[in-house]
């Protein structure tokens, strides 16, 4: 007989616990709100906030969240996640497989800059508090530490394609407007601007904030954690992934690789060679 520990077993109904949803026959409650009272009354951005934070946000704050979600939906088929979605569809998989393949590459390198930037903003503010200095000096400390110990590149700044990211310009204008209206503290916006100034001084040229940095400002100002910041980016970019995957499925093309056949890859291995005679297996003087 198996010995008992004396501890009571977990009741089956207690195995999974959630404060998000309660589903009973004929009833669905989201954070305590009957679903039928939310349908038609909440925007999608408000629903996202409710699911993640537990409360319904005001319309102005939901509008700012929605702006960030809209801004990051797509950046063209040259983006790895979008390209993967399109290539997947040409392999004959279903759209959910294509979307999953694309989302799975949104990690630290492609898709993680927003989360990293949110962490950087928080480090600047914590440094300013600990050192009892302004965000400008704290930014210099944090950026210097990052460039020495992590990477010369600062997440959320600069862009390989856009000299000035038009998405970031618009988003930060909305943040500034919300700050002037007293909806936000503006502390993360100040940290973002301080880092931008620090980078310009260190590089002796402008390195403007990009879409990742701008959405990081918004998500931070709205009180989302850095982890949720990455999740919100993935939620936003999933719209672009879906659109590209579906468009590609309508083209009826098969097995398209990353480059057209006219653009060959580069082989870097050994030149053509023979198998060493000492390794060849002979049977009855034949191969």
TrEMBL record:
Stored CDD domains: CCL_ACL-C
Pathway(s) where this gene product acts: Carbohydrate metabolism; tricarboxylic acid cycle; isocitrate from oxaloacetate: step 1/2
GO molecular function: citrate synthase activity; lyase activity
A Gene Ontology term for the protein's cellular component: cytosol
Keyword Transferase: yes
Known EC number: 2.3.3.16
Assigned keywords, A-Z: Lyase, Transferase
One biological process term in Gene Ontology: carbohydrate metabolic process
Keyword Lyase: yes
Superkingdom: Bacteria
InterPro entries: Citrate_synth-like_lrg_a-sub, Citrate_synth-like_sm_a-sub, Citrate_synthase, Citrate_synthase_sf
Family the entry assigns: Belongs to the citrate synthase family.
PANTHER family named in the record: CITRATE SYNTHASE, CITRATE SYNTHASE, PEROXISOMAL
UniProt-recorded name of the protein: citrate synthase (unknown stereospecificity)
């Amino acid at each position: 007989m198996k010995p008992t520990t004396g501890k009571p077993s977990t009741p089956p109904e207690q195995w999974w616990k959630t404060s998000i949803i309660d589903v009973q026959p004929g009833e669905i409650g989201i954070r305590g709100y009957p679903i039928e009272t939310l349908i038609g009354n909440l925007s999608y951005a408000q629903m996202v906030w409710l699911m993640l934070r537990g409360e319904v946000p005001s319309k102005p704050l939901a509008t700012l969240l929605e702006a960030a979600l809209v801004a990051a939906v797509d950046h063209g088929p040259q983006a790895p996640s979008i390209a993967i979605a399109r290539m997947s569809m040409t392999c004959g998989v279903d759209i959910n497989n294509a979307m999953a393949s694309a989302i799975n590459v949104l990690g630290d390198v492609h898709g993680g800059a927003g989360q990293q930037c949110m962490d950087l903003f928080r480090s600047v503010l914590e440094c300013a508090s600990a050192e009892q200095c302004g965000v400008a000096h704290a930014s210099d400390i944090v950026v210097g530490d990052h460039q020495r110990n992590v990477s010369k590149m600062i997440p959320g700044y600069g862009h390989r394609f856009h000299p000035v990211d038009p998405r970031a310009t618009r988003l930060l204008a909305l943040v500034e407007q919300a700050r002037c209206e007293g909806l936000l503290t503006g502390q993360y916006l100040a940290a973002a601007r301080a880092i931008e100034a620090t980078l310009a001084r260190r590089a002796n040229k402008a390195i403007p904030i990009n879409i990742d940095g701008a959405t990081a400002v918004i998500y931070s100002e709205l009180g989302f954690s850095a982890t949720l910041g990455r999740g919100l980016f993935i939620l936003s970019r999933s719209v672009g992934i879906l659109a590209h995957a579906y468009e590609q499925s309508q083209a009826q093309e098969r097995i398209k690789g990353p480059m057209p056949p006219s653009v060959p890859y580069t082989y870097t291995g050994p030149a053509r060679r023979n198998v060493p005679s000492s390794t060849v297996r002979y049977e009855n003087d034949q191969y």
